[in-house]
Amino acid sequence: MKVALVTGSSRGIGAGIAEYLLKKDFKVYVTYLKEKERAFSRFKKYKNAVIDQLDVTDEKSVKKLFDSIKKDEGALDLLVNSAAIEIPGKTEEISLATWDKIVNVKLTGAFIVTKYAIPLLKKRKRSTIVNITSTLSHSGTPDYPAHAAAEAGLISYSRTCAIDLARYGIRTHMVNPTTTRTEMWKDIGGFEDDKMWKRFAENNPLKRVSTPEDIGKAIYVLTLDETEYWNGEEIYVDGGSHFK
Fold it and tell me: Residue 227 burial (CB < 10 Å; 0-12/13-18/19+)?
């Protein structure tokens, strides 16, 4: 049985990824920061789900989790860096603390988790890292400057890992979803706005928005033998909307 760790998987895209992998017979370490009840409510029915607390910005927290994975499994097949927060606000509006918080979770957190994952990923003949990135990194995004900057940094870091870690049989990829209707939209506003989501769908070449399952499918494909020679790929799961 393959073993995966999905950060930020108590809700949203991360939860959808974790659930899809569980249905594909992975053992999945599901992580939460504060929403323990939500995580257990959703994943306690899966016998191959291990639910644990993780703060990706806290090196001690990360090391503790990997010590547990090492003790229980001895190796890791897949790491998905999905943890993120979104706080809107133009450059003139957001505080330095807000900037740091966003960048620390998305970019620095991915670095810390990847650093401690490498020894376990090296135990497999072929293993995979997938960083959830965003089309925000390729365009000017005035309302989300810190998030866009962190995403761009994560893409550069992913490409660096693809080169550096290939010698160990570790392949690194990026998956870019389009706008996805998840609980995160309850934090920033718009989750209940059906008309807005209808407009998003109508503006997409495939006439719908993405689902967390769509993203989980892409990640699963990247773990298959058929994609063993893929490395450093940036995959858009957006129905073709990045061409518009």
Answer: middle
Could you tell me the CATH number of the domain that includes residue 45? 3.40.50.720
Reported as a pLDDT band with limits 50, 70 and 90, residue 199 is: confident
d(CA 34, CA 61): 13
Structure tokens at 18: 């974790």
Token pair, residue 176, equals 């870019």
Contact 173, 129 (CB under 8 A): yes
- Return d(Cα 132, Cα 135) in angstroms, integer: 10
Domain holding 198, by residue range, is 3-243
Walk across the sheet containing 234-237 and list its strands. Answer: 49-53, 27-32, 3-6, 78-81, 127-132, 170-177, 234-237
Give the pLDDT mean for 122-135: 94
pLDDT for 185: 57
pTM of the model as a whole: 0.92
pLDDT value at residue 192: 59
Count of domains forming the chain = 1
pLDDT of residue 190: 53
